[in-house]
Automatic annotation (TrEMBL):
Lineage: Bacteria, Thermotogati, Thermotogota, Thermotogae, Petrotogales
InterPro entries xref list: HATPase_C_sf, HATPase_dom, Heat_shock_protein_90_CS, HSP90_C, Hsp90_fam, Hsp90_N, Ribosomal_Su5_D2-typ_SF
Organism: Tepiditoga spiralis
Family: Belongs to the heat shock protein 90 family.
Binding site for ATP: 32, 36, 76, 81, 89, 96-97, 118-123, 168, 328
Its job: Molecular chaperone. Has ATPase activity.
Name this protein carries in UniProt: Chaperone protein HtpG
């Protein structure tokens, strides 16, 4: 007897979105269902490598299509599903990605087709064209099959059933109103297979009517693209293979197709995506490269073939030197694999360096998607510094554009000791930093660090080609007028000591500034501890107690300082205290930090205004 069950809440929302045509390209449903069939065959094929008997003689893997009576049937002899797996994977799915998928879907109303493959919810695309979906499946090691039915209305039925052969059969009862958008006849299905599923490695068969007779026809080429000569492959073929295989809807940014012969033989077909995967920095993201041996699939997403900082790379490596039944543990010990790993890492980095040299504008497109991953390669492992430092680019005060570190070095003034940088949330906020004034006035170029990892990165690197990185908020900047300011400090030593005493719980030192021109005050980093920007980032990450060693610098040429000099001479300690507190809070605000006590600050301003 059939059991009636309700869909998971988020799945109901997803179905509603599908049925109400939020996708502009409904034809993708066939691509998704055929990919699921291919994946199911991959799984049984992989299991059979360890235990050939499980195939029970059914070893001609194929996907069959049938179109009749306004129904489209997709059938495979893959691994199949058990009763519980159908409920978990289709009925309720219970996957955290579904809610995220719907949120992104609503954000990307004009660009939704590229999202479906990223969240593994492709089965539901069937409801874009079907008013009712019936799924019959049998797992290879189960006695009974399972039948699942739904009209996409918030509920489904599920029952056990007799089924002789393993695999899955999906029957779509097509919506009558769908013909206005996509007319599903034999010609259209052939067109869709060619467009989306031509490189599926299993035959996709369908009875096609020719001259009044029905003939079984294979609709896809099944040829391994990576084994063809590069000269014979069009870019469109690479693009479609990438999108079909790796569930993306945007052409790849770059294609790397390379072959090696000799002591180790392999073919690698790698793709740099155009967009960062939505879940790339989440724990759920699974990186890795597919492994094949002589066109036979061995392993999905092998993580150790590329370093983690290149985890965004998708692709495959095919080598006759790989054993079909090799385990991940044995792969890690494989000398051949270590050579392949080293070679393809070098190939990817050389490709990126060439793009940077020949077309910096195009490289910026890559960098704005994956730059943080490259930076993390150095931050997490300093031995990568030499490999990756030439790939780093940062926004800069020079023409307000990106620059490489090499270009920065070439433009440095003769008397310049440091590579100067400024940190902030974005370029606009950095350009408002008071510390920037004198550095630019001295004619020094400043790199703009607006990614939270940047300052941590250069702390690890320390230098580039012998030039030390120096924050404009550092205590010692080596500016031209520093000697002159030191004389003024000696003359105002007692005033500075008094201000330091007033702010003793908040700053480690009070100095006159050689870097300020128009601003009255700023906070810089002392010789110990982290910067204020790093303190802010760590606070957001809940990684306190890490506090910046704050030094308060006051502009000796500003009217506020002249007022404080007068208050000090006249012994007006209360007013001097108020001005000191005001200057400190001003410095925090200019630094992008919140005042420690906003209420006290408001009252203090009111008090000084009314006097």
């Amino acid at each position: 007897m059939s059991t009636k069950m309700n869909f998971q809440t988020e799945t109901k929302k997803l179905l509603d979105l599908m049925i109400h045509s939020i996708y502009t390209n409904k034809e993708i449903f066939l691509r998704e269902l055929i990919s699921n069939s291919s994946d199911a065959i991959d799984k049984i094929r992989f299991e059979s490598l360890k235990n050939p008997e499980i195939l029970n003689g059914d070893n001609k893997f194929e996907i069959k299509l049938e179109l009749k009576d306004n129904k489209l049937i997709i059938e495979d002899n893959g691994i199949g599903m058990s009763y519980d797996e159908v409920i978990e994977n289709i009925g309720t799915i219970a996957r955290s990605g579904t809610k995220k998928f719907i949120e992104e879907l609503k954000k990307e109303e004009n660009n939704t087709n590229d999202l479906i493959g990223q969240f593994g919810v492709g089965f539901y695309s069937a409801f874009m064209v079907a008013e009712k979906v019936t799924l019959e499946t049998k797992k290879y090691n189960e006695r009974e099959g399972v039948i699942w039915k739904s009209e996409g209305n918030g509920e489904f039925t599920i029952d056990k059933t007799e089924k002789n052969n393993r695999g899955t059969k999906i029957t779509l009862e097509l919506r009558k109103d769908i013909e206005d958008e996509i007319k599903l006849d034999e010609d259209k299905i052939k067109e869709l297979i060619k467009k989306y599923s031509n490189y599926i490695k299993y035959p996709i068969k369908m009875e096609i009517e020719k001259e009044g007779k029905k003939e079984l026809e294979i609709l896809n080429s099944m040829e391994s693209l990576w084994m063809k000569n590069k000269k014979d492959i069009k870019k469109e073929e690479y693009d479609e293979f990438y999108k079909e295989t790796f569930h993306d809807w945007i052409d790849p940014f770059e294609i790397i197709h390379t072959k090696a012969e000799g002591s180790i033989e392999y073919t690698a077909l790698l793709f740099i995506p155009s967009k960062l995967p939505i879940d790339y920095y989440s724990k759920n993201y699974k990186r890795g490269i597919q492994l094949y041996s002589k066109n036979v699939f061995i392993m999905e997403k092998y993580e150790d073939l590329l370093p983690e900082y290149l985890g965004f790379i998708k692709g495959l490596v095919d080598s006759p030197d790989f054993s079909l039944n090799i385990s991940r543990e044995l792969l890690q010990q494989s000398r051949q694999l270590q050579i392949v790993k080293k070679n393809i890492e070098k190939k990817v980095l050389n490709t990126l360096e060439n793009i940077l040299k020949k077309d910096q504008k195009r490289y910026i497109e890559f960098w704005e998607q994956f730059g943080r991953s490259i930076k993390s390669g150095i931050y997490e492992n300093l031995t990568n510094k030499e490999k990756l430092e030439n790939l780093l680019i940062f926004k800069s005060s020079f023409e307000k554009d990106y620059t490489t570190l090499n270009s920065y070095i070439e433009r440095m003034k003769e008397d310049q000791k440091y590579i100067y940088f400024a940190s902030g949330e974005n370029v606009e906020s950095i350009e408002k930093l008071p510390q920037l004034e004198a550095v630019l006035d001295n004619g020094y170029e400043v790199l703009y660090f607006n990614d939270s990892i940047d300052e941590f990165l250069v702390q690890m690197m320390r230098e580039f080609k012998g030039k030390e990185f120096k924050s404009i908020s550092s205590n010692d900047l080596n500016l031209k007028n520093e000697e002159e300011v030191k004389k003024l400090e000696k003359e105002n030593g007692s005033l500075l000591e008094e201000i330091k005493e007033i702010l003793k719980e908040k700053v480690s030192e009070v100095k006159l500034s050689s870097r300020l021109k128009t601003s009255p005050v700023c906070i810089v980093t002392g010789n110990m501890g982290i910067s204020t920007n790093m303190e802010k980032i760590l606070k957001e990450l809940d990684q306190l107690p890490f506090k910046a060693d704050k030094v308060l610098e006051i502009n000796p040429n500003h009217d506020l300082f002249k007022t404080m000099e007068e208050l000090h001479r006249n012994g007006e300690k209360e007013k001097l205290r108020d001005y000191s507190e005001l200057l400190y809070n001003q410095a925090l605000i200019l630094e992008g930090l919140k005042p420690e006590n906003p209420t006290e600050l408001v009252n203090l301003i009111s008090k000084l205004i009314t006097k």
